[in-house]
UniProtKB/TrEMBL annotation:
Signal sequence annotation: 1-33
Disordered: region residues: 156-186
Pfam assignment, any one: Endonuclease_1
Domain of life: Bacteria
Annotated protein name in UniProt: Ribonuclease
Assigned keywords, A-Z: Hydrolase, Nuclease, Signal
Any GO molecular function: hydrolase activity
InterPro entries membership: Endonuclease-I, His-Me_finger_sf, TAT_signal
Native source species: Streptomyces taklimakanensis
Length: 275
């Protein structure tokens, strides 16, 4: 596998050089005639999202949260079975279309290697599904905005713990830490985790048969519909802003699956405006 990855990388490098040469040749062409850039899937996000968020513009606090809820609760809902294929799309490795990137380990693994055996990847509920007890029926338990591929063993170690700093290193998952009541993901996904939790708080307000999910500043929330710790999540949100992988994920979910967005990826400043 490592050999094929290496050869893919060198092929990609060759394409990159060829593309660079083409761009150099194409440079004198007027801007209006230029072809769409290679990363076009992420380019229209901001333009599309200004229309999408129009009812929320200029609001703060509870009014902003309520406006965003009204916007993002218009969505298509998946079955738990459909989530497998969807994650293969939303979390695809940009360097290898056969693979997904696992959230906590950062490992690139074959999309086909999902299941319940050691070494497989499975469907992690970043908002632990016992917090509000929503399970895996269609609803919050199948909402792609907080579902991520993870290593089966690491998913089990994270369990339903709240998020907080500290603990011992998690073996086999460099940068992750855990203790008896909390889990700290690696730095590169700290902000992703925070924005997923805060999306869930806005999306689920108790008006659709499921619990009203809310962040709080505690650990050990158990089955209560709360997730901690808010102060730490806000810090993680600031230190790990959205990157192209996370923005693309939001775009794929919006365009191809649920037709709703995570507002905190598009407008990071809205975290402070609400909390
Ligand atoms: Ca702890
Ligand atoms: Ca990140
Ligand atoms: Ca809520």
């Amino acid at each position: 596998m490592s050999r094929s990855r290496a050869s893919r990388r060198s092929v990609a490098g060759g394409i990159g050089l060829a593309a660079a040469a083409l761009l150099a040749v194409a440079a004198p062409v007027p801007v209006s005639a230029a072809p769409a850039p290679a990363d076009a899937p992420t380019a229209p996000v901001s333009a599309a999202s200004e229309d999408y968020y129009a009812p929320a513009q200029g609001k703060t606090g509870e009014a902003l949260k309520a406006a965003l809820h009204d916007i993002i609760d218009n969505q298509t809902k998946l079955s738990y079975r459909q989530v497998w294929d969807a994650l293969g799309d939303t979390d695809e490795d940009p360097a290898n279309p056969d693979n997904v990137i696992l959230l906590y380990t950062g490992r690139s693994q074959a999309k086909s290697e999902h299941g319940g055996n050691l070494g497989d990847w499975n469907r992690e509920h970043v908002w632990a599904k016992s917090h509000g007890d929503f399970g895996t029926v269609t609803g919050p338990g199948t909402d792609l905005h907080h579902l991520r591929p993870t290593d089966v063993r690491i998913n089990s170690i994270r369990g339903n713990k709240d998020f907080d700093n500290g603990g011992d290193p998690v073996s086999g998952a460099p940068g992750n830490h855990t203790d008896g009541d909390s889990f700290e993901p690696r730095d590169a996904v700290k902000g992703d985790v925070a924005r997923m939790i805060l999306y869930m708080a806005v999306r689920y307000e108790g008006d659709d048969g499921f619990a009203d999910l809310e962040p709080n500043d505690r650990v050990g929330n158990g089955s209560a519909p709360y997730h901690g710790r808010l102060d730490v999540l806000k810090q993680w949100h600031r230190q790990d802003p959205p990157d192209s992988f996370e923005r693309n994920r939001n775009e794929v979910i919006h365009r191809h699956y649920q037709h709703n967005r995570n507002p905190f990826i598009d407008h990071p400043e809205w975290v402070e405006a609400i909390w």
